[in-house]
Amino acid sequence: MNLLAIESSCDETSAAVLQMEDSGKEAAPLRKILSNKIASQAETHALYGGVVPEIASRAHTEAISSLTYEALAEASLGIRDIKAVCVTASPGLIGALLVGVNFAKALAYANGLPLVPVNHIRGHIAASYLAYPELRPPFLALVASGGHTSLVRVETYTSLETIGQTRDDAIGEAFDKAARVMGIPYPGGAALDRLALEGRTDAVRFPSAAIADGTLDFSFSGVKTAVINHIHKLTQAGEAYEVRDIAASLTDCVVRSVLKKLGAALELTGLRAFTLTGGVAANSHLRRAVEAFCAERGVRCYIPPVSLCGDNAAMIGAQGYYEFLAGVRGDSSLDASATERTFPLRTKA
Ligand code: KG4
Ligand code: ZN
Question: How many angstroms separate the alpha carbon of residue 235 from the centre of ligand 2?
Fold first, then answer.
């Protein structure tokens, strides 16, 4: 079946068309991206050093309609060929989410189509289904992005449990804020990735983000503050600092923290497959380290291509398909939620 998907939870407006078919029996179900249009607002927000919610909402409003029709045109399909409309409804910036939710609601209602609300974090995990058609639950996932850091036990496509998460800042925020104090424009994660290639990982010791309390939780605010303080101290003393070394040391600290909790989560759950997703999964150092870590333990490792790591609507459609099969539906009362929320199965009258 063909699905249309909409994503507008943060600073990317995206519309995608997917062809999905999964009877549960195939070795590799059909999971095909027919189009995945993304309009990034990063340049606009870079002027302010971070996402400005009101500007994001306005930019989504301007882009969403034409982007949706471009996605249909690129897929060579009309709205009549679509069987369901999927939309990110939580979590995210409330004003940004509302643009996508209201647009999707209107489109579904006007065309008599089912509406499927999708959780953004589940969507990030589903990016791996598109990249690896053979991937099926159960597996362990780490969603690492600008807004989230969650270790998730994926039991079935629609039964997921968060077993560890950040207690404060997200992993991407640590990268973005560190980049910002070093004068690198928002979002600085990708630039730090490149700089870290040339720096010394042992130049500065930053505190681990893996909380040592027996849980699977992280704390990235300490690392973030340590980087900021380190740079401020050097600047006040009039000393020069090497951006590459700080990038490499920070990356090394983050990678070690992730591997620590990944090891513990694999041990706890006994799962033999792992996926790393979300914008920070684009980090070349983290990708390599996680792949090697899993290979040493005989754990199958799935990391989507960089093009599917950041926010995009194709991943929302991939999760939306499985939510649709499970009977999840939204109606005209569907609301967006800034905080994490899953959606109840529709109880048939
Ligand atoms: O998933 P995403 O597009 O949006 C959220 O849901 O938050 O993630 C964006 C985050 C930003 O913090 C950005 O700096 C980070 O992903 N990012 C990276 C890299 N590419 C993007 N962080 C580290 N290394 C990268 N190569
Ligand atoms: Zn995201």
Answer: 34
